[in-house]
Amino acid sequence: MQPADTRASVTAPDASAAPVPHDDRLRPGRPAFRRANLALFAAGIATFVLLYSTQGLLPVLSADLDLTPGQASWTASAATLGLALGLLPASALSDRYGRTAVMTASTLAASALALALPFAPDLTTLVALRALQGAALAGLPATAMAYLAEEIHPGALASAMGLYVAGNSIGGMGGRLLSGWTAAALGWRWGLAASAALALLAALAFRLLIPAARHFTPAPVDARALARTVGRHLRNPLLVRLYALGLLFMAVFGAVYNTAGYRLIAAPFHLPETVAASIFVVYLVGTGTSAAAGRLSARLGRRGALYVAIGVTTAGLLLSLADDLLCALLGLVLITAGFFAGHATASAAVGRTATEGRAQASALYLIAYYLGNSLGGTLGADAYHATGWPGSATVGLTATTLAAAVTLYATHQAHTARRAVADA
C-alpha cells in the first residue's frame, strides 16, 4: 500500500480554488463521479506499477548484468529519489497549469520512459532513466489529492480517496509481482516491458476517464511564501520528528524489500525465482494495518501507536534472522504490518500538527519518506552484499532504534511540558 499522498502546493500557504457550492461538486450516483474515481484508481496503478517495477526483479538483474545487490538496488532507489526531488516542482506546475494537465503529463511521460527501459544497454543508462521516470511520476502524488478535494463533494471525499489509495496499493504490489514473475520466466527486459505495457494502458484509461476540472483556479507560484512556510515547518520540532520517523520507517522497508528476494533464492531456502518474487503479496498486510492504525492511535495515543509499530517491526526483523522459512516469512509479515502502522500514524499526525501550510507540511513528509526508501534500500543492499541477511536486518534494526529514540525524546518533551504547566 502506498501513502495517501497529500497535495504539495508551493503557492502561498493553503492556497485553494475559489469557493463553490458543495452541491456543484461530484457526488455518488453521477457518471462523472464514477469516472473520476476510476480515473484516479487507474492513475494510481500506473504510477506505482512504474515506481516499483524493478524491485521485484533485482536478483534477475544482478545475475544477468553481474551486479552486486547494492548496484542493482540503484534501479529502485533512483526512481524514489527522483520522485522525492520532483514533488515540489510538480505541485508548482499543478497550481499554475491545472491538476488534470499535470497528472496526464506525469503518467504519460513516465510510461513513455518505461518503454525505453528494456532497451537500456547498461546499468548507468538504466539508473538514469529510472531517476527521470521518478521525477516524471511526481506529478500524480503531488496533485491527485488536490484534484479530489476540489472536485469531489466533501461527503464522498473519503471514499474517493480510499479508492485512489487502493489503486496505489494494487499498483505497488502488482508492479513488483508482474515484473518479478515475467523476469523469472523471460528475463528482466521483458519484466520491464510488461510493467510498461500495464502502466501505459492505465495511463490511457486515466486520460480517457478523467472529468475536466471545474473548480480549479490557476495561481501564480509565490517562491517567497513557499520559503517562509517551509522554513516554519522545518523549525517546528514536532514536525521534524514526524519527518524523521517517516524516513526511518521507510528505510526499514527499503532495506528489507530490496534484499528479501536475494535471500529467498539463496541458501538455505533455494526458492525458485518465481516464488521469491511472490513475497510482495505480503504487501496486502499493509491494507489492514494502515486502517487499524487510526483505531490504535485513538486508544493509545500517537506515541503509543508509534511504540507498538516500532516494536512489531523490530520483532519482525529479529524473527527474520532465523534460518527457517516460516520464521523468515512471518518476520516479513510483522515488518510490513509495523511499517504501515508507523507510516499511517506519522503521516496522519503531520496534517493535525501543521496549523497552516498543511500542503507543504505533507509534501515535506513525503520527501523524507521517499528519501528514506532510497537511503534504506541502498544501504540494505550494500549490507546484504557484505554480510548477507544479517546485514540488511541490522540496517533495519538501526532505523527502528533511531525511531524509538525519536519517540522516547518526544515522550520526554511532552512530560516536561505537562510538568511545567502543572507547576505554573
TrEMBL record:
Keywords linked to the UniProt accession: Cell membrane, Membrane, Transmembrane, Transmembrane helix, Transport
Region Disordered, as annotated, extends over 1-28
Q: Which InterPro entries match?
A: MFS, MFS_dom, MFS_trans_sf
Please give the start and end residues of each transmembrane region.
36-54, 74-93, 100-121, 127-149, 156-178, 190-210, 238-257, 269-292, 304-322, 328-351, 363-381, 393-411
Q: Which PROSITE patterns match?
A: MFS
Q: Which residues form the Major facilitator superfamily (MFS) profile domain?
A: 32-416
Entry's family note: Belongs to the major facilitator superfamily.
* Name the UniProt record assigns to this protein: Membrane protein
Gene source species: Streptomyces rubellomurinus (strain ATCC 31215)
Q: What does UniProt list as this organism's lineage?
A: Bacteria, Bacillati, Actinomycetota, Actinomycetes, Kitasatosporales
